[in-house]
Amino acid sequence: MPGPRSLLPTRPLRRDDGWCEDATHGRYNRPIRLPSPAGHETMWRDDNLYDVVGVLDWNMSPRVSRRGSAIFLHLARQNLAPTAGCIALSRTDLKRLLACAGRRPEFAVAAKPLKASRHRRSGR
Asked: Cβ distance 7 to 102 under 8 Å?
């Protein structure tokens, strides 16, 4: 697919793109070329979740071993199922977000709020 309209730097994924998740490897939480002996995330996916993917600045500088890697902003599954730590949006919402984001966007990530009725019962 064509790249999204955005002020952020973009490039097309290649079939040999990966992301190192091996906390003992020198490229931990960095892009790598596949095949690789290091534990990794394969960026070229059959389910198309990474057709549009943004690398979030989590544990990037400095990198801390085992603090987390491969935290991305990417497309959500059709049922909006939870991710393994990433932020996933519908294609429409992700394209809209990227189109209005500046060159250095900041995202505030918060847990889903509790329902109001539960707050009242617990005395909060």
From this structure: yes
* Nearest of 41, 103, 35 to residue 72 by alpha carbon: 41
**Do residues 77 and 88 make contact, with C-beta atoms less than 8 angstroms apart?**
yes
One-letter identity of residue 50: Y
Please report, for the chain, the start and end positions of each structural domain, with discontinuous segments joined by +: 1-104
In whole angstroms, give the CA distance from residue 88 to residue 95. Answer: 12
For 53-86, the DSSP string reads EEE--SS-SS--TTS----EEEEPPTT----SS-
| CA nearest neighbour of 82 among 108, 42, 111 | 111
Residues 1-25: pLDDT tens digits? 677 788 888 889 999 999 999 999 9
Peptide bond into 82 cis (omega under 30): no
Strand partners, 53: 74
Spatial CB neighbours of 60, under 8 Å, sequence gap ≥ 6: 29
Burial group, residue 32, by CB count within 10 angstroms (0-12, 13-18, 19+): buried
31 DSSP β-pair partners: 19
